[in-house]
Structure formats: structure tokens, C-alpha cells
Amino acid sequence: MASSYNAKEEDGHLSGSAGLGGTAIRTRKPDNTAFKQQRLPAWQPILTAGTVLPAFFVIGLIFIPIGIGLFVTSNNIKEIEIEYTGTDMSSPCFNCSQNFSWNSTTPCKCVLSFTLDQPFESNVFMYYGLSNFYQNHRRYVKSRDDSQLNGDLNSLKDPSKECEPYRVNEKPIAPCGAIANSMFNDTLDLFYIDPNGTKNQIPLVKKGIAWWTDKHVKFRNPAGSNLTAVFIDTAKPVNWRKPVYELDTDSENNGFINEDFIVWMRTAALPTFRKLYRIIQKKNNMTPTLPRGNYTLEVTYNYPVRSFEGRKRMILSTISWMGGKNPFLGIAYITVGSICFFLGVVLLFIHHKYGNRNNSSDIPN
Amino acid sequence: MSFFGLDCTRNREREVERKIRANDREYNSSFRYATNSIKTSKYNPFTFLPLNLFEQFQRIANAYFLFLLTLQVIPAISSLPWFTTVFPLVLVLTVTAAKDAIDDINRHRSDRQVNNRKVNVLINGKLISEKWMNVQVGDIIKLENNQFVTADLLLLSSSEPLHLIYIETAELDGETNLKVKQALTVTGDMGDNLEALAAFNGEVCCEPPNNRLDRFTGTLTFDTQKYSLDNERVLLRGCTLRNTDWCFGLVLFAGPETKLMQNCGKSTFKRTSIDRLMNVLVLFIFGLLALMCIILAVGNGIWEHQTGSKFNAFLPRKENIAFSAFLTFWSYIIILNTVVPISLYVSMEVIRLGNSYYINWDRNMYDARTDTPAEARTTTLNEELGQIKYIFSDKTGTLTQNIMTFNKCSINGKSYGDVIDHYSGQRVEITEELARVDFSFNRLADPKFLFYDHSLVEAVKLELPDVHAFFRLLALCHTVMAEEKKEGELVYQAQSPDEGALVTAARNFGFVFRSRSPETVTIEEMGIQRSYELLAILDFDNVRKRMSVIVRNPEGKLSLYCKGADTIIYERLHPSCNKLMKVTTEHLNEFAGEGLRTLVLAYKDLDEEYFSEWKQRHHESSVAMDEREEKLDKLYEEIEKDMMLIGATAIEDKLQDGVAQTIEQLAKAEIKIWVLTGDKQETAENIGYSCSLLREEMNDVFIVTSNSPEEVRQELRDARLKMCPDTEQDQFLIPEIILGNTPKVVQDENVNGDYGLVINGHSLAFALESNMELELLRTACMCKTVICCRVTPLQKAQVVELVKKYKKAVTLAIGDGANDVSMIKAAHIGVGISGQEGMQAVLSSDFSFAQFRFLQRLLLVHGRWSYLRMCKFLRYFFYKNFTFTFVHFWYAFFCGFSAQTVYDEGFITLYNLVYTALPVLGMSLFDQDVNDRWSLEIPQLYVPGQLSQYFSKRAFMMCALHSCYSSLVLFFVPYAATYDTARDDGRDGADYQSFALITQTCLTVTVCVQLGLDLSYWTVVNHLYVWGSLGMFFLLTFTMYTDGLFRLRPSSFAFVGTARNCLNQPNVWLTVALTALLCVLPVVAYRFFSSQIYPTINDKVRYKVCKMKEPAPRPRHTRLIRRSTRRSGYAFSHAQGYGDLVTSRRFLRRPALVSTGFTPTGRSPGFKPTGRSAGYSPVGREQNPKQKVEPTSLQMFRAVKDSSY
């Protein structure tokens, strides 16, 4: 071992000089504080077998049950997805998808039927899904004016430059920008076909689909009692058929605070996404919200996606405490937990074989 | 100052010739010469902002960010708002500007201090005290003793005979001896006659200002006569007037035009090896950045072509594809710019500054005796201290205290000096508590002389003839000069400290050397004054290794007294001494074993007739035209024979405290120590042994002392072959490619066994020639220890440069004197020993402290920690920034390469500044793998630093790969977890803002966990920083997403509500936990794995510390036991003696009693080291107020001697 250390180094000065200096004379001797002498008390964790190996096992033991729980939960969620893009000749929506025009006034309708093998209990959520739609493109994301959407009158008259080229169409556009302009405008209706053949329209709730903060904070109509009057000096977005103040008859769901609009304006992170369209509320505890059986989906086909090879889907799904159906987290937790466990075993073996030998060996001098 | 010089030369055409008329301000001012005010400051309050900003933007990093900023204001490119760059940039600029401002204020202050010094100026026939800054060219000023020379002056007259003055030029050239200047007779005759001086109207015509210190040409025209002027007549600013009561001078050059100022300002800027590595890495990072941006730009082109064009209905595009790709390139440059983090440089400076303060604050590096704490004078080199491979050390004043003490002696076969315990008969260790010998019986005794053996003084009092002869010899046989300013206050001026110690010993034991004249030596023998006639001095030289004096005592008896190396004297002893010789030899061996320097003393009574005959022959020989030296030598040989042995002395060349232990420690840390000293080979070797640089058990110590290049080469080659027989292959040079130029690097060669190399200055001169330097380097680097003796300051620097050039190693030079300055400046790190005589070394050093032994703490503790911290910091910093940035890269593939960011803009701005800044700073300021005790206990911990193991290109690549992995996890886990899923209330959960928030939460948590893993020393501050930063992240995130801020600026705070809506989701937290674990898992596994399979020294020590559960090892008290059979037999240092001077009658320039107040600083008994100048700085840097070096008569002698050449 090393033979260091001089007694004097303990405190950097000779013991004899203590009386010599005295307290009256100010010396340049540094202060004896733990901070300045780098002696702050500290917790010094190190990776030893005693800490690492149990940690691996404990993580494994925690993760695997969580993963199983997540996986089972996800599997119990019922979900059905119906594509209605109409790219296929056989699809009922083929015709509608072929002859599309933004300006056509006669709506094109198509009807798709499907069967639910299992009843959907509890509240059922109806989504529309788009694929290959780049709602996350930078120019697209930027192309909005939050001030305008928040009811700012100045922005209403003079929308932000970010909205170009959907900023002014003779009159300022409200709502301006590419996002608003490309708002999803298919109408989806759902019918339950009774075993006896009657078609019952399923009531779809269209309120409560947007975030509370969006509806009440982020989006506000410009001040004014009459929406029509407020928006009188603005133009509707180029692709829209109706101006913004005619989106709904309900004044709580009209103008900028129309929930369909709000949902659309919350842009998706990835090019494939789904957005909440309607909620099918549970009627009572006796009957399932959507009983087993045949259904038809009536689509008012307005939204063109063929040009960019997009896909349109309608999804019906129940939810759980962890949200919608997504097996990923469950599988990931099970996998990671198993890896931890496995690593723990391997490292235990290694530690057993090599660790003791190396760590107990002396430090060369 | 060059700045200022430029400034004033720009105003007028270049000066070709300078014309000055004395006492004629009007005439002189027509030339608009610079006044004597100096300006080293750069700014004034008005120019500060523009100039400082201009300077800062010359730094590449700042310029780069300015460039980014300009990119960001172009709307088509701007992928990030301007504030993401402006905030960090403004912060960086402000911090730097504040530092610059403080520096400049200090410079202003020191300028003011220098400019406001007072000097007497002759104005209108009267001497008026003026400030320095008001002195003008052409003024006549009066300087007084010990004043600094105000400006470059033409010497007019002085108080001394022959119009001589003495100056010390240490500040200019580092030479500490006095120099002589002489005024012209025509001006000198004016003396201090103010009327004559005021009427003096001589005209000087001389060269324009330049920086040559050793040359001056000009003419003086006075009374129609022309006199030529040269360097002998000129006093330069920066010198100090010594030993001269007053002098008058005419100002030739003032202020910035003085030669001193023209020489200043070329201080070299040192960078650390990590800095250099960083430069390479930054280039690499730029390359990586460009590569990523090109990939993404190409991707954009392809996307626009295949998908974007079809997406036109929803997202119209104006540009064509190529232009869009081009714009995308720049957009990504902006987004990915965080790979070259601007805050990195600022943080590095802060860390270095912090670690420098630790050095200043360390009580273990504070020297109580001189009241000097250690000081980090450069705050940018700390981590380099953890990588030192070679130490170049001065000897005198660095390893040794330059104090010789008379420790022991052997008189007539009896050894004195050891204290023997009466009861046990054992030797008692000499400590402070032991009763020292009381010399109060002797009123002339030097109170600082310490001796512990009472038997010797009793022997003196008993008037034992041998003991008296012994001390009489010591009092007579030397070339020391005595100065007695006040009765009884004797001060000895010795040429070598050994001699001083011997004469002082004699003085205390009652044989006081009082004064000498060319013919006599007066001593006081036990209170009785006796004058000996000095008949001859047979002076010392390197071959003779002895000196003798022949004196006639007051009774008329002739004696020869001789002292010298044992081997030499023994050959010349009378056969009757054989028995005594044996005993004395035993004693000598004992002394040498303790590392003492020994001398043998002998005497001989001479026959009057023989002597007069010898004297005659001596006279003939000394005037002989040919072979004078040989003839004299032969004569000396003849008379110095058949001498009678008296005894031997043992002198301790006091090492500084703890030198041997320090060297041992440093050797264990695999640091090679080379001693570069101006001393003689024997002295150097001796010190080498006593501080365990050279050891008895070394396989061999090679000594190279040849006088021709061929021999030197052969000796070096032989040595190498002996160390390693198969060394001759030429693969020792390996090219090291750094940025185009490929310097060759000499590989380390493996040697079995320990070897030492001693090389003298003469051989070194040959070996440093370009054709032999590799030979020298290879041989030297194979040795454990290298000692170069008799080297000049220039050679010191050359040796350092040589190692720097061919070894990829970090060098450190440590020294205390002006002669070490060159080496201190040349080495990567320069360390100055402070609290000693001079400030030269300290002023040019990077670190300074008072004791050599603090070096081990500086390197093994502070250096190691600084390096460790800096490396940890860099590794972590790159990790966190790369991880942060690479996520954008992956996201590009899912957003049409549109330069959409993954994170919120606010997060991007604050990530480096707020969320992750403090934890990593805390780590870099507080982290320690093991505490200081263990660092010193196990010096091997230092080795990884020398091999740059903690941060290298490889470590950097590992960092990059690790970040790459982490960023993949950080992007794809949230991606998969949110893909097509819904929140727990059925609303869709994969919107951009939620995704951004999830990713940035994952990122922040992950980097915090990673930091926690890296942090091995969790102090309160670290806890505060880590948890505080995490808390700050959530706090600020919630704040930024509040309604209030949104209402204030809807477009800037568009993320309103995201945090509330997102962070209440259980699967968000599950995702965060999963990513953090996945990112950290491989790291933990790898670290544990390698600590098991290939444990590093750190792992082992930390494991041991952990297992012992003890804060630190008990410090051990070991006493170094030296068992050496070597004998130095040597106690003269430096050059030939003063014999000539003593007998030449030239030295008594002044009467023995001088009136000026002489205060002996008294560092050693009666001996005062040749003064290394007090720390005066002409540019107003800190002075050393404690020491005012007074002239020593020694310097006077030298000066007289010099001037007579």
C-alpha cells in the first residue's frame, strides 16, 4: 500500500505555528468549510452486485405483472374498424370516391354494412381515421392563427401571415389557414339492423368530443351576440361548403367552438391518426350499448383522399382505464421485465464466476 | 499594449528617427511622442459594448450562432422561432462580457496605479514630484535608490564615482545579477547641480522605438560636440536602481514606446488537450450535422416528389422540389444545431473556474510559514492537471530550500552532531522540542543557527586544540565576504551556500570571521580578535575539488589550511594520519548515508624558507605567458601534500518538506520526473539520491558528460541498448494524424528495470541538436529519472519543447526562479513556487503554491478530480444533447421531412438552459469517485488520466452510439404507445402536442436518470439540482401551458392545456417509466459487466472503499529511511571561487560599514541567497510587498567584475 501522508498535510500547516499566528492577525488561510474543502457529506452509490442484481430482479418482477395486466386490459377492449375509402371497385363507396369535386352540391352517399360478433358494452366511441395524411407537416402545422381562433377581432380582420395562401380570399378567411381549410367533412351515420330487419339509427352524441381546455379556453367565438353578424366581413375557407357560423345550429357548438372543428384543429402527431367523431352513450345497464348483430354505416362522402393515396376508416371502440386498444405497452413491459430478469441471471452468473475473484484481488502498488 | 501602440502609430507616419531636445517640451511635443502613461486596458465605458461584441463574435461558436440566428429570421427556413437561439446566445454573451469587463476594470486599476506613481521631474530648474503618466519625452528626471526606472532614459549623471549606476534587470531578462551603466563624462560632470541640468540643452538623435533590449544607437549633440550613445548609457523601464543614491536621466522613450512595453503582450495562450480534442470533435460534429441535414434534405426531395405533390390540395406548395430540399437543409441545420451546443463552452469555463477556486480554497495547500495559499492563476487548464505524464522540476528552491545547515562533523576521530540519549545510548531523533545548544556565551553568534549536540560546544570551551583548529580552519579557509553595518551585526556574503553554512558554524562556535582585506583575514577566536596575514588563496575549481589558503598567524607561524572532497584530500594526507583516516572514513560513510554533503579538512604547517621560495615560483608562473594554468596547478599540487587531517564536516542541503514522499507518490502515479538544474552534476546527483529520484537499487544510472557530439550519441545509444537490447528498430515513430498535419510521435518503449540518466549541460547542448534529439528523447524516456545539470534557462525550455514535440503527453514544469520562466512558459502547465524570493516564476505560471509537496495534492487530488469531472461532464453533455437532437432526425421520417420539431419551442429553448444545466454543472463541480485521502493513498488512480481514458474519440463515439440508441427508444416507444390509441376518456390521444409533451417528459426523465447513474457523489447540492430541475421541468411546463399565458400571446403558447390533459393519463407515465428504464438498462448492465470482468483501478478502489465503510484510510506517518553508501564528498556549488577577486583589491569599493539601512532577511544563518528580484511589474501587476531586496555585496562584486570586462 501507499505510504503517503505527511502529518502536516492534515491541515496544511505546522502545528507549532498555531500560537504564532494568533487570532488578531488576518491570514490568507482559506476557510475551513466543508464546501470549500470539498468535504460535503455525500451519498456515494456504486454499482455493486448487492445493488445491481436485486434491482434487476425487482424490476423484472414489477414489470412482468404490469405488462400482463396491460396486455389483458388491451385485449379486452373491443374495437372494430371499417375502411370506406372506396379505392376498390367492389367497395360501395367506389363511385363516390371517383367523381369527387370540392364544389359539387349534391352529396354522394354510400352505405357499408358490417356485423358485430360481440356486443360493445359501456360507452362506445366512434372515430374516423385517416392514413397518409400529413397533419404534422411543418407548413401545415403552422398554417393557423390561434389569435383568430381565440376570438380576437383584429386577427379576424387581418389573419396571421402563417395562414398563407389561405389567408385572404377577397375578404379575410375565417378560420384561416390550411388546417381549417382541409377540415374533415364526411358525415357518418350508424344504423342497427334488428334481427327482424328494421333499421334503427343509433344516436350519436357530438358534444364532449373535444378537450375541455380547447373548447373553453383555446377556441372562442369573436364577441358578439349574433355569429352571422360577427363573421359578416369574412370569407369561408376555400374548400368549405358552409361558412363557419353555419357548422351547427346549436349556438354552443357553432363557429369556432364547433367541436368537430376543434378536434380537427388539434393536429395529429403522425401521418396515420384517428380522431374522435361521436360518442354512443350507454343507455342502461340492461342492454349493451351496441348489441351483437348487423349494422350499416351511411357515409356522406365529401372528403377526398384518393389524390394522396390516403385511407379513410370508421372505428368503433370501447375504452378501459388505460385508454384505447394498444397492445404495445403490455408487450413491451412483459419483454423488458423478462430481459431484466434474464440479465439478472446472466450477471449473477458472471458475478459468481469472475466478480469475487477480481474485486477481492489487491490493488497493485 | 500592442493595440495601443498600433493606435498611435496609425496617426502619424512611421517614425524613422527620434529627435529629442532636453528640457524643451515645446520642441519635443511637435513630434507627438507617446507620453509615459500606459494603457493595458482594452475598453472604456463607451467602446466596451461594440468592441467586446466584435471580439466575441470572432469566436467561431458565437459566430455560428449568429449565423443560425440570421437563418432563423428567414421565414421560409425558420423551423424554430428566433428566441430559441437568442436566449442562449444572449446569456453566453452576457456572461463572457461580464468576465471581460471585470478583467478590464482590474487592468484599468493597475494602469492607474502604475501611472500614478510619483517621480521627481526637473521642471524650470526645480524638482517637482510628478505622476509617471505626466512624464514626457525630453524631461529630465531624478531617480533614487531602489526606485523603478520610469521610462527609457539616457543616463546623465549619478551619485557614484565614474558616473556609474547599478541596476537590476530581472524584470526584463530574468537575470538577477546587478548590471552597471555609465554616463558620459560630459553629462556626468553636471552631477546633481540642478542649474546645470536645467540649462542642459543637449539634443539626442536616436533610433525609433523598438523591442531590442540589448541594442541602442544614437548620438547626443551638446555644445556643438557630438557624442555617440550606446546601450551602456541607457536605462530601460522595468529595471530597478540599486546601490546608487540617485541618478539623473533624460527620457528617450515613454509609456508604450519603451522597450519593455514593446516586448510585452506576447503571452502565449495555453489550451488543454481536451480543448484540442474538442476542436477535432466539433469538426466531426459539424460533419455529422451536415450529413444528417443532407440525408433529410434528400428525403424531403423524395417525399415532395412522391407524396407532397399529391398532397397539394391540402397543403399547397410554391417552390419546386429542389428548392424545397435546399430550404429543408437549412431548416434542419437550425433544428439540429443543438448537437453543437453553445452552452457547452460556457459550462466548461464555469467548471474550470469552479475547480480553480477549489485549488485556491484548499487548506492543505496553504503554507502557514509564508502565509501563502495555493493559487490557480489560469482558470482554463484545470483538467490538464489530471493528465500529467512528465514533470520538469527545478532543483534549487523547488526541491530544496536552498538552505545549507551545518549538521554534523567529525573532529579528530570523534563524531559530533548526534544527540545520544544518556540512558539508552540510542540516537535521539532531532525534533523541534529538543534543547538546542545555547550560544549566548558568544555575542556574535547567529541566533538562527541551530545545533543540538552539546558536547561540541563543551569541547570548544575546553579548548581542545583539534576542535579549535577545526573551527579556525573553517573561519579562515573560504572566500566569504563579511559585512558589518552595525557593530556586531555580521552578514556573510558567500558564493556558495555551503561555504556560508561552514563559516557561520565557525562563527557560532566562537571563531568569528569578521572582515577581510586583500592581505588579511580578521577573525575573533573565543573573543580575542586576531588578524591573519593572507598570503595566498589556492582557489577552488572543478578539477581540484579543494581550496586552500596560506596564512601567517599573528605569532608569525605559517599554515596552509585546506578543505575539499574526501577522495582528493585523502590522496594528499601525510601517512601518519592513516589511523585517523579510517575512523573519519567511517564517519564520512555515516554522514553520506544520511544524505549529507561532506568535506574533509586538513592543514599543514609551512616552512618560512620553503614558502618564500614557493611564492617566488608562484609569482613567476602566474605571469608566465604560456601554460600558465598547468604551471600553477603543478605548484598547487606540490604544496598541498603531506597534510594533516583534522576532520570532516557534514552539511545538509535541506530538502523542502515532504519532497521525497511526493516524488515517491508521483512515481507511483507513473509520472516521470526530470530535474533540470543549473547546479553542478555532483550536487544534482546528490539531491537526486536524497529525494529518492535516484535510488541505490536502480539497475543503472547512466551519466552522459561527453564533450563531442559523437561521444554523446554513442553514450546515449549504449545506454539504450543496455536498457533494451532490441530497441534499434525504427518503428518507434508513429504518425499521429491531427487535422491534416502529421507530427510524429515517439512511442513509449518498455524497459525491464529501473534506470536513471544524468546528463550535463554541455552534452545536452549536443543532444538537443535536431539530428540527435530523438536519440536523447528515446533514451531519456526509457529511464525512470532524468537529471539534467548545468542547463541554461533556454535549454530547460528546449528539453520541455522536445518532449512536447515528440511525446503525446502532458508536461508540467515547476520552478521558483527567473531562470525557470522559459520552461514554465513552454510546458503545458507551469507551476511556480511562491513565497520565495522572486515572483518571476509565479507571474508566468499557471498555478502557484508555496511548497513542492503540494504538487501531489494538486495533481493527484485536484487534477484528477478536475479531469474526471470535465470528462464526465463532456460525456454526459454530448449524451444529453445528441439524444435530444437525434429524436428530431427520426421524427423527420414521419413528418414528410418538413423540419417539424418533436418538442415544443419553449422546451427547446429551456432544455439546455434550465432543465438540464444545473444537474450536470453540479456533477462537474462536486463529483468525486473517491475522496482526497484515497486519491493520495492510491496514486495509481491517476493513470487513466494520462492515457486519456475518460474522454477520447472512442468515448465520444460510445456517447454518440448510446445517444443514438436512446433517441430511438425515446422516439419509438412514445410512437408505439400512442399509435392509434385513445385516452381514458375516449378522446384521441395521439395529437401532436400530446406527443411532444410525452416525448419531452420521457427525455427529461431519462437524462435525469442517466445523470443520477453517472453521479457518484450526491451532495445536498446535487440532490437539489437534480430534483429541482425535474421539478422545474414540470413547473415550467404547467406554467407555459396555462390559460393566462395563452391569452397573453396565443400563438406563442399554443400548447395550452396539454399538460393537464396529458399528464393525467396512466399510460403516459407507464411510457415514461418504460423509456427511462430502456435507456438506462444497457448502461447499467454494461457497467456492471465490465466492473466484474475487467475491473478498472477505480472500480477496485471504490469497491474497497465501499466494503470498508470507512471514510478514509488513516494517514500513515512514515519516516523515510535512507540507506545509502554513496558519498557526496562535495560541498562547493556553482562556479569557480572568488579567490581572484579577494586578492585583486578590486572588491572594496565601499567602506565596510555602509550607512544605508540594511535589513537582513535572514533566511539562513548569515547567508543571504543571491537575490532573485522582488516582484515588480512595470505593467502594474501584483507586486510582492513583503520583500524589498537590498543589494548584496556579492552583487556589487559581480557588478564590478562585469564592468571591468
Describe the structure.
The complex is a heterodimer of chains A (365) and B (1205). Chain A has 365 residues and is an alpha+beta fold. In chain A, 29% of the residues lie in helices and 16% in strands. In chain A, helix 2 runs antiparallel to helix 11. Chain A starts with 16 loop residues before the first helix and ends in a 5-residue tail after the last helix. The model of chain A is unreliable at 1-24 (pLDDT under 50). Chain B has 1205 residues and is α+β, with helices and mostly antiparallel strands. Chain B has a nine-stranded mixed beta sheet with strand order 14-37-36-35-15-29-34-33-30, with helices on both faces. Helix content of chain B is 44%, strand content 17%. Chain B contains 41 helices and 37 strands. The chains are: A alpha+beta (365), B alpha+beta (1205). At the A-B interface, helix 2, strand 3, helix 4, helix 5 and helix 8 of A face helix 12, helix 20, helix 28, helix 31 and helix 33 of B.
Present the secondary structure layout.
The complex is a heterodimer of chains A (365) and B (1205).
Chain A: H1 17-21, H2 49-76, E1 79-83, H3 94-98, E2 108-116, E3 124-131, H4 138-142, H5 146-149, H6 153-157, E4 168-169, E5 171-172, H7 178-181, E6 187-193, E7 199-201, H8 212-218, H9 227-230, H10 259-265, E8 273-280, E9 293-301, E10 311-317, H11 328-360
Antiparallel strand pairs in A: 1-10, 2-9, 3-8, 3-10, 4-5, 6-7, 6-9
Chain B: H1 2-11, E1 18-21, H2 25-29, H3 48-56, H4 60-72, H5 83-115, E2 118-123, E3 126-131, E4 140-144, E5 152-158, E6 164-168, H6 170-173, E7 178-182, H7 185-188, H8 194-199, E8 203-206, E9 218-222, E10 225-229, E11 234-235, E12 240-242, E13 246-253, H9 259-263, H10 273-308, H11 321-335, H12 342-361, E14 375-376, E15 388-393, E16 400-411, E17 414-416, E18 419-420, E19 427-428, H13 454-461, H14 465-476, E20 481-484, E21 490-493, H15 497-508, E22 511-516, E23 520-525, E24 528-538, E25 546-552, E26 558-564, H16 566-571, H17 578-593, E27 597-605, H18 608-623, H19 628-639, E28 644-655, H20 659-668, E29 672-676, H21 681-690, E30 700-704, H22 709-723, E31 733-735, E32 744-746, E33 755-760, H23 761-767, H24 773-782, E34 785-789, H25 793-806, E35 810-815, H26 821-826, E36 829-833, H27 840-843, E37 847-849, H28 854-892, H29 905-915, H30 917-926, H31 932-937, H32 943-946, H33 953-978, H34 992-1014, H35 1020-1040, H36 1043-1048, H37 1058-1062, H38 1066-1093, H39 1097-1108, H40 1139-1143, H41 1193-1203
Parallel strand pairs in B: 15-29, 15-35, 29-34, 30-33, 33-34, 35-36, 36-37
Antiparallel strand pairs in B: 1-8, 2-3, 2-4, 4-13, 5-11, 5-13, 6-7, 6-12, 8-9, 9-10, 14-37, 16-17, 16-28, 18-19, 20-21, 22-23, 23-24, 24-25, 25-26, 26-27, 27-28, 31-32
Helix pairs in contact in B: 3-5, 4-5, 5-29, 10-11, 12-28, 12-30, 14-15, 18-19, 20-28, 22-24, 28-30, 28-33, 28-34, 29-35, 30-35, 33-34, 33-38, 34-38
